[in-house]
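input
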Amino acid sequence: MMQTYVAEVAGRAVIAFRAKDEIEAQNWIDTEEDVRSDLAVLENEGRPLWDRETPIVVRAATFAEKAAWTRKSVELSEEEGDYNPNDTLAFLVPITDPTGALE
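output
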């Protein structure tokens, strides 16, 4: 059964996502280059979410973080026909994309 986990950078929760267990969650965040690249490019308050050096730590999501993930999952399910909820990434902080690709 999939559970919701959070990736933290320097003690700040940045994304919520789903995995089978904490080991799978940490392995995913350590090896998923597209997500790691996004974390290094996307910004919060003018700073990248991740500096490519600070360890990204995974932990179980709190109730509020699970709720944020669920809201994003519902939003995506209404927009996409072939939607898989286990692929949902929910940012837990406001983000901007300095490259303009998100706009």
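quick obs: The chain has one domain: 3-91.
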